Amino acid sequence: MTILYTIDKSLYVNVTNACPCNCTFCVRLEHNSVGECDNLWLEHEPTLEEIIEAFKKQNLEAYDQVVFCGYGEPLVRLDIVLEVCKWIKANSNRPIRINTNGLANLIHQREIAYLLEGAVDAISISLNAPNKERYLEIARPCFGIDSFESLIQFAQACKKVIPSVTFSVVDVLSHEEIEACQRLATDMNISLRVRERIK
Ligand code: SF4
Q1: 91 CA to middle of ligand 1, Å?
Q2: In this protein, which residues make up the domain named Radical SAM core (predicted)?
């Protein structure tokens, strides 16, 4: 079972396969893994102890950063992610990033961004679309049409407590839609990264 895997010089953490979205471009629809491992489908959600044991086998100083990403939405397991961040901070000085769909407030039915203060150094939020209607079509979240607004509110809250906040979109969008995403990101003073779809 793959809990930790590498992409370039980053160490990635795979804590869950659960996700409230079903993005049209999701790599999980066509592949079993990304990076240098065979399979990111988990036999079971790893316990805190299993994750820490996996970390203990690594030399964290050999990596540029630790990234919570994996084959699901890491913030579904908010408590575990926070505990693992605490362990990483106590045992290394490597920066920590979370890659998230930005729907954690809906997942947990409360505002959670403030809990990330001091725990993570960066967060990359999948913006996915320039407006709520397109977001619903592309990300297909189980929370429905209100999801996009919650994502935007989450990003605003993250700006107050996390040193680096980035939006990302995948290049499945049209040029005009990517430009609209860029305007939205600029208005929020958040940088936007356009990612290539994994084929
Ligand atoms: S949020 Fe990420 S893991 Fe979830 S469906 Fe979309 S691309 Fe896949």
Answers
A1: 30
A2: 5-199
All residues at 6 or more sequence positions from 47 whose CB lies less than 8 Å from its CB, including other chains: none
Ligand 1 pocket mutation pick from 101, 124, 127, 136 by most atoms within 8 angstroms of CB? 101
Pocket residue to mutate for ligand 1, from 25, 26, 106, 143, most atoms within 8 A of Cβ? 26
Kindly tell me if the per-residue pLDDT of 199 is higher than 70: no
Ligand 1 centroid from CA 51, angstroms:
21
Contact of 100 with 74, CB cutoff 8 Å: yes
Question: What is the third-level CATH fold of 4-195?
Answer: TIM Barrel (3.20.20)
pLDDT at 33 over 90: no
pLDDT digits (tens, 9 = 90+) for 99-109: 999 999 999 99
Sheet holding 122-126, edge to edge: 4-7, 10-13, 65-68, 96-100, 122-126, 164-170, 191-195
Place of tokens 């240098």: 36
